[in-house]
Amino acid sequence: MSSTVGVRISVNGEVREHEVEPRLLLVHYLRDRLGLTGTHVGCDTTNCGACTVHLNGEAVKSCTVFAVQADGAEVTTIEGMADGAELHPLQEAFWKNHGLQCGYCTPGMIMAAADLLQRNPDPSESEVRHGLEGNLCRCTGYQNIVRAVMEAAHSPQRTTVGPPPPEKPEAREEVGKGVGA
Amino acid sequence: MSTVEAGPTGNGYVGQAIRRKEDPPLITGKGRYTDDIVLPGQLWAAIIRSPEAHARIVSIDKSAAEARDDVRIVLTGEDMTDLQAPLPMAWVPPGVEIKTPEHWPLARGKVCHVGDAVAVVVADDKYAAVDAAEDVIVEYDPLPAVVDVEEAMKDGSPLVHEQFGTNITHEWGLGSEDVEEALAAADVVVERRVVNHRTAGAAIEPRAVAADYRAGQLTLYTATQIPHLVRLQLAGCLGIAEEHFRVVAPDVGGGFGSKLNVYGEECLMAYLSRRLETPVRWTATRSEDMQAAVHGRDQVDYARMGMKRDGTIVALHAKLIADLGAYQQLLTPFIPSFGAFVMSGCYKIPSVRTDIVGVFTNKFPTDAIRGAGRPEATHLIEVMVDQAAAELGLDPVEVRRKNFIPKEDFPADVAPGVTYDSGDYHGSLDRLLGTLDYEGFRAEQARAREEGRYLGIGFSTYMEICGLAPSRAVGPSGVGIQAGFWESAVVRVHPSGGATVWTGTSPHGQGHDTGFAQIVADRIGSTPEQVEVIHGDTDRGPFGMGTYGSRSLAVGGESVARAALKVADKAKKIAAHLLEAAPDDIELRDGRYQVKGSPDKGLTLADISLAAYVPENIPDGMEPGLDETNFYDPENFVFPFGAHAAIVEVDAETGKVDLKRYVCVDDCGPAINPMLIDGQVHGGIVHGVAQAMYEQVVYDDTGQLVTGTFVDYALPTAAEMPTFETDRTETPSPVNSMGVKGVGEAGTIAASPTIVNAVTDALRPLGVNHIDMPVTPLRVWQAIEAAQGRGSGPRASEQGVPEGGAQ
Ligand code: FES
Ligand code: FES
Question: What's the pTM?
Answer without folding.
Answer: 0.95
